[in-house]
Design goal:
Length: 115
């Protein structure tokens, strides 16, 4: 019985050894830093050191950087993040690559590791 749920699955590889640096969904580099700010309202500040993509969101106080990162990735794929200025064609190429991977990822499982 293969019960198939139709939900969007975004495959994110997170290595536990690298605590607060994650892979950027925009530029693909492992340069995303997550800060959890706990002044009054708790919020996560996610920023990529390579492409400069930036995302802030209120989060529950139990959130860890990795949780905020997942939220960031979701928001990114839903188009809720303002993209940093990148030179036109390059940016489009990256976007298309990402889309391709996203489709692949949702149709197959994450057994294949793309380089
Ligand atoms: Zn980036």
């Amino acid at each position: 019985m293969g019960r198939r749920r139709r939900r969007r699955k975004i495959v994110v590889k997170v290595k536990k050894r690298i605590p607060e640096v994650f892979e950027c969904p925009h530029c693909g580099r492992r340069t995303v830093k997550v800060d959890i700010e706990r002044k009054g309202e708790v919020k996560a500040i996610v920023k990529c050191g390579s492409c400069g993509i930036h995302f802030e969101t209120p989060v529950p106080s139990i959130f860890k950087p990795v949780d905020a990162y997942h939220k960031f990735v979701d928001a990114y794929y839903e188009g809720r993040i303002e993209l940093p200025e990148v030179k036109g064609e390059v940016a489009e190429e990256i976007q298309e690559e990402l889309k391709g991977e996203l489709i692949k990822g949702s149709e197959e499982h994450k057994e294949e590791v793309s380089s």
